[in-house]
Amino acid sequence: MTTITALATPSGRGGIGVIRISGPKVAEIAQSLLGRLPQPRYATFSNFLNSDGELLDQGIALYFPAPHSFTGEDVLELQGHGGPIVMDLLLNAILKLGARLARPGEFSERAFLNGKIDLAQAEAIADLIDSSSQQAATCALRSLQGEFSAQIHALVDQLIWLRTYIEASIDFADEEIEHSTNEQIIVKIETMLLELEKILEKAQQGYLLKEGMHIVLIGEPNVGKSSLLNSLAGRETAIVTAIPGTTRDIIRDQIQLDGMPLHIIDTAGLRETNDLVEMEGIRRTKLAINEADLVILLQDDRVFNQDLLSEIDKPDKPLLIIRNKIDLSGHPAGFDPEGILYLSAKTGDGIPLLKTYLKKQMGLQSNTEGQFMARRRHLEALQNAKMALTTALTLTHTYHTELLAEELRQAQQHLSEITGEFTTDDLLGEIFSSFCLGK
């Protein structure tokens, strides 16, 4: 195993710069760089020297011998003055002593490989760093502390117990499963399905806090798409004029809606045009619709094209029709029986109703207690485990015990993918490559 090092603080000028070193050569590097091996887990003031004994910097050294460190290896952390030149000189001195630069996420990867954290906890480190709201940070920290993993492990333990019993019945086929025992198996699987549903619901909320919802605003020119974007964003993101065709390209903005990232795409107005630039904007509008979680069709309440949806092909996405400019038409704000929302992007009348709708559309809950951060792969693994358990439940009413055992094995494997007990090198490479240096 090689020894790795990296700058753990952001590059640039700062009060303190931190360099981490992990691997078998840590003790040797410490002897050369500091003149001694610091007392374990004590902050020690030290001179940082190069190979010629010249002083590079002064600061704090922290030594964590294996296995009692973040990576499970010998770890040395150097806290020096945060000037970029000082940090570069110190880092180069460490490289000359036999370390190499760490890849993005390699410290966390080694922590995972050495059993210090599982894969869900490792991902939570990156999610905590990338959190865009207090709620997201709280959920990421909860995952890092192992709450998500603990619930997955509890399900896996139940599956192992059930698989042990059922596979034993296959090995001893002469002894049939009693009816009462089969009923217990059914109850056990039903209970696991209920628990899995609860975990999936929390994971979906965590995924929502991480990734947010993508909304595409479409409509004819000058119906108020840019005004609606500005109203939701609370700032002048898009140019608003009375001239049709002002927005010729898609405009992307991200806002926070009760802690949820909301990605809004304002598109070019849909109309017949000979303007090449505007035509390209309209083409991009139709492409953006395919990326959306929700499509909002905005219309002028005073006059609108009833056939617009048929002209652009009704998107295979959830669709909300909004009639804007009620400050001019006189229509009251609110939803009509057909689910059309009337509002004024200019005055803000009806905007709270839109925000409530958006939160409900994505199932956002203001209370994040018990929720944890989750990723798309976590949701897919939970869904696959649910499908396997559902199939297993149907097989309890048949004599296909081998198939029942296989479905339970599949459910366990899908759940184990979340914590990394069953995974591939390709998946690990993809996950840890998204981390920042020094983590």
Topology:
Blueprint: E1 4-7, E2 14-22, H1 26-34, E3 44-49, E4 55-64, E5 75-82, H2 84-96, E6 100-101, H3 106-113, H4 119-129, H5 134-144, H6 147-171, H7 179-211, E7 213-219, H8 225-233, E8 251-257, E9 260-266, H9 276-291, E10 294-300, H10 308-312, E11 319-324, H11 326-329, E12 334-335, E13 341-342, H12 351-361, H13 376-395, H14 401-419, H15 425-432
Parallel strand pairs: 1-6, 7-9, 7-10, 10-11, 11-13
Antiparallel strand pairs: 1-2, 2-5, 3-4, 4-5, 8-9, 12-13
Helix pairs in contact: 4-5, 6-7, 6-14, 7-13, 13-14
- For this structure, the CATH topology of the largest domain is Rossmann fold
Find the CATH superfamily of the largest domain: P-loop containing nucleotide triphosphate hydrolases
| Tally of separate helices | 15
Would you identify the CATH architecture of the largest domain? 3-Layer(aba) Sandwich
CATH hierarchy, class of the largest domain: Alpha Beta
Report Rg: 29 Å
The rough form would be described as: flat
Sequence stretches where pLDDT stays below 50 over 5 or more residues: 238-249
> What does the main sheet amount to?
7 strands, mixed
Count structural domains: 3
Measured between the Cα atoms of the first and last residue, the distance is 18 Å
Quick recap of the structure?
This protein has 439 residues and is an alpha/beta fold.
Task: Write out key terms for the chains shown.
alpha/beta, Gyrase A, domain 2, Four Helix Bundle (Hemerythrin (Met), subunit A), Rossmann fold, 3 domains, 7-stranded mixed sheet, 6-stranded mixed sheet, 15 helices, 18% strand
